[in-house]
Write a structure and sequence with these properties.
Layout lengths: L7 H22 L4 H11 L3 E2 L1 H8 L6 H10 L3 E6 L2 E9 L1 H22 L4 H15 L3 H5 L2
Antiparallel strand pairs: 1-3, 2-3
Length: 146
């Protein structure tokens, strides 16, 4: 006998929207849009080889991400340098100022998240974070079956 539960998307989508709404005041306080923060988080993993590649990796529209990248570069948070392998392309990297802003923003967001996670018993909290990390790391094709 199976127990009835809501579908994963039915549970996660409202939670994700609420979490993004909770993040917005933190992002505003740090002078970042959601996409700018996503770029800073992604570049923490290492340089991106081109704006198109970055847009694809973060799920952004490649034409709309250009304004975000322009703003981050003008603020000294990222650098766009010629790619040694292809001078037409640009390698995007975080600057030290970009790292500091990302770290400060992420710390403030995670402090808010911890208030939510504190509602879970310690074992459930770690299990939830472990399970979420495992599922979030799956390739999109594995989830969608494409």
């Amino acid at each position: 006998m199976t127990t009835h539960r809501p579908d994963l998307a039915a549970m996660l989508a409202p939670l994700a929207r609420a979490l993004m709404a909770a993040e917005q005041p933190v992002l505003d306080a740090h002078g970042l849009s959601m996409w700018a923060y996503v770029v800073l988080l992604h570049l923490h993993e290492g340089p991106a080889r081109g704006q198109g590649v970055l847009a694809q990796e973060i799920g952004a529209d490649k034409t709309r991400i250009i304004a975000v990248l322009d703003d981050l570069q003008e603020r000294g948070l990222i650098e766009r340098d010629p790619d040694p392998a292809d001078r037409r392309a640009r390698v995007l990297t975080l600057t030290p100022a970009g790292r500091r802003l990302r770290d400060a923003t992420q710390a403030d967001i995670q402090a808010r998240e911890n208030r939510l996670l504190d509602r879970l018993p310690a074992a459930d909290r770690q299990g939830f974070l472990n399970a979420l990390s495992t599922l979030a790391a799956l390739p999109r094709q594995e989830i969608t079956g494409d």
